[in-house]
Amino acid sequence: MTKPSTRKATSTLIIQPQDNVYTRVTAKILTDLEQGNLSWRKPWHSEHIASQVMRPLRWNDIPYTGINTLILWNEASEKGFTSPYWMTFKQAITLKANVCKGEKGTQIVYADKFMKEEEVADGETKTSQISFLKTYTVFNASQIDGLSDAFYKTPEPVAVNKQTRNQELEQFFAHTKADIYTGSKACYTQSIDRIQMPPFETFETAMRYYAVLAHELTHWTKHPLRLNRDLGRKTYGDEGYAKEELVAELGACFLATDLGFEPMPEEHHAAYIQSWLQVLKDDKRFIFQAASYAQKATEYIQKLVHP
């Protein structure tokens, strides 16, 4: 009998050549960036959904996460869909509804993995973890007839007093136990594990303050004692720096959506766009990784507040 090897399992990614989802999604985002647009912020710039942006939802109210959030946000903005609900053709049939004739669905992805054993040269057995992406098609409720009224109802806008601190948001950020202090600029310093924020009164609106804080809090999750996220930053402005900033940007958008406010654009976005363009051109898979890192950061923060 072959003795099982104690070698560490390796991980491989399988991509179907006929449908390279990495290239397709990244190409769309690159096109937006080259025009000075951030794909993940489109929902807040669309008249039909700007006042009630929320996570895309499955038919059973479970939110989509990671890269699928970006894909469906982008599609809803471009097609004018107001419903947050998305489902497959079969799911619509199960709900006794029908996709409208001529409607085209949106491809999203599902990540999965399986274990593969193979015999190596020395007669031992090596176990490899094979990761792969599956694509499948979903339709927005706006493309489907016969669903219950709940699927077509547009969420109510979130009312916020922009001139004063929002107590619910104040409590949320306080419950993370992050060390936040008032200083001259917005930044997270890992060596001292502290978030510095300018005085609340220096921001144009309360929501702009919370948007910046959400960005810095996403950075805060990278600490080795939390998510231990290291994207290879060596010096200010290098590729690792650009990657971490993209993760924080997406994390701020995800968190802002969950908390019900607009992630106001930062002054540095114009400069960041050029570095993000280069990163995504060099690595077609990174937008998927960045969305995954941002999703994990958001979930980590939410669990701190709602254990």
TrEMBL record:
Domain N-terminal: 20-139
Taxonomy, superkingdom: Bacteria
Organism from which the protein derives: Spirosoma profusum
Protein name: DUF1738 domain-containing protein
Polyvalent protein metallopeptidase domain sequence ranges: 168-292
GO molecular function: single-stranded DNA binding
